[in-house]
């Protein structure tokens, strides 16, 4: 197990792959293999649900999707602009004069 970067952290131990019904009883057996009480640490068991975009806080997943969609829209807009207003030969000569190309 790697050392955590922050003093409070959560480590995923496992996952439940079957669907649970509301009110269903879950039995968990634990072992204390590492003494965390000697330095004031504590251990807890957290049961949580994870959605498609992540766990407890889905802001980061949604942010990635929004930024990806904005980039895709900008790419499509630039493609349409390049197709509607193509560069003319004179524009290319202004950018790359023949004197520069002769070197």
Your description of this structure?
The chain is mainly alpha-helical and 103 residues long. It has a domain at 54-101. 36% of the residues lie in helices and 0% in strands. The chain is built from three helices and no strands. The chain starts with 58 loop residues before the first helix and ends with a helix.
Features:
single chain; 103 residues; mainly alpha; elongated; CDC50/LEM3_fam; transmembrane
The count of helical stretches stands at 3
Uncertain parts: none
Assign a percent range to the helix content.
25-40%
Oligomer: single chain
Major sheet: size, sense and barrel closure? none
Radius of gyration equals: 28 Å
Strand content: under 5%
Distance between the termini: 59 Å
Which shape, going by the Cα principal axes? elongated
Keywords: Membrane, Transmembrane, Transmembrane helix
InterPro entries: CDC50/LEM3_fam (IPR005045)
Family: Belongs to the CDC50/LEM3 family.
Protein name: ALA-interacting subunit
Write the layout of secondary structure elements.
Blueprint: H1 59-84, H2 89-95, H3 98-101
Give me a quick take on this structure.
The chain is mainly alpha-helical and 103 residues long.
